[in-house]
Amino acid sequence: MAEYKEHKAITFSSEQEKHFRDLLNKFCDNEKAYHGPNIGKEIKILQVIDAPIYRAELATQYDKRTFELHSQSTQEYFKPTISKPSEVNRWKVAGINSPSAFCDLVKEFTILESLETRTCQTCYGAQKVTCEYCHGNGTITQTRTRQKTCLSCNGTGYYTSTSTETYWTNPGSQIKYNCDGDGRIMQSKTITHKHTCSKCNGNGKIQEEYQVQVTCPTCGGNKKVVCPTCKGTGLIMHYFSVKQQAYKNTLNRWFYPDLVQKDEFKEFSENIDSSLWQLSDRYDIQGTQFDTCAGRNLPVIGGMVGRLCASVSENEETHICFNRLSIYTCPAIAIEYQWNEKKYHCVLLGTDWQLFSFRSPISDYFEEQRESVQSDMQKGNVSGAWKKMRNVLESSQSDTADTDAIMQIQQRMRLTTHYGKILGSLLTIVALLPLLIDYFAHYNIVAPWTDLVYRFVYLPQNDAILRAVISFAISFYLIKTDFFIRIPKFLYLHSSGFIRMLNGILWGILLTVVATAIMLVLNYFGVFIAILAVMAIALGIVTTIIWLLVFLIMLAIHFITTL
After folding, report:
1. Rounded CA separation 229/72 (Å)
2. Taking CA atoms, which of 13, 303, 491, 509 is between 20 and 30 Å from 527?
3. Is the pTM of this model over 0.85?
């Protein structure tokens, strides 16, 4: 039997104390984001406790047996000698053996004495049932397709339309025309256009659906099918079985230093390297004979072992086959120290002293950084908060809450650049508006088809101001809502608020120039004409509705006053 020691206070030798302080200094150096002092030189050691950690592991093999009811078609007649599962001792069924080693398995054993043949309750012994597919009609309705001549194009696959094209021509000197001094006259000609029929896509034929009655493919028109329950035998065999599920389960209990708090232990236990554990004792326990286990009488940890064994139980369906109790030891020294009037604790694991720190001056340092970030945000010092939170994220102390916090800070930083973008866009619009109006009024380079509209409908200078205003209104809206592109991070992830604002202004200028160029392209292809047409139609509709409402109201007033 291994030696199990009570936790007791000890005193470091000068070499041990120096080694511990060096470990704390190394702990500070490894935390690159930590900019505080090396605490190893300044701490005051309050107590040192030789506190080996003990872990009791209980592996239990279970054997679970449950009754399962079954039914299937048969052509044989069986008379049961056992009618209920309660008449069977599940633990003494022939052929079912309890596991002799740790394993996971699933087996099922039929109780042959429970076999019983009964009349099928689906077909009541008739062997056939009404066909569900055709509902006993023997026929079903099918939808089929056939081709017919397209009536839209009369089977030609196309239709024609005509249009009149006007053009300017020089009549020459042989014929006298009155050209009003222009030297040319306008002529027209009729052009025939050929269009693919949209109904038949140029095929001349279209698909037509129709319905027919056909023989049911399931029952072949017999209206009856073989009973799916009994497979046409008219008989069903009922029986039950014993299902065996063998599985292993493992439980652990710990004996750890008093300095380690309960809320700290979970993280602490998960981070102990498996190589640090040493097997101290092992006991095999049959069934539930835990009282015979010598591990319950071990010094120091006997109570822990007893509580672990008491947590295992069996029931009517589940039995315990055997158990294996293993005791592991991890050498450890728990240390309490003081720094800046605050008390902290840590644990040295293993014989080579692997440092595991809980709350420490370093964690307090980063917690102060977080509090400072919140204070800076309340004061509007976004740049300072961003610098500090970046430092926290670079540490091993960071968590998901820190990630969320820096995202909120960056969103605030983005707003500065966003406002700069709006300002830059407005300044650019003010500067370019006169130029754009002049361009639309006197130059207005457009596509030939757009030019025809301007020649015969109205002069382009008539809507120059309107088109310029619409162009910039659309551009500004798209820029303000980040429709074009979101502000790149490199523009606003800067510690200087002035730089973020300046980047935003430059970004707004660039986007406005690009948007203006796009609007000029759209104007070239006649998009603005279409926009104005839609606006005119919408305005006409709204005006008509308003006048109609006014008329109805006046009519109602007149009717009421004349009563």
Report:
1. 8
2. 509
3. no
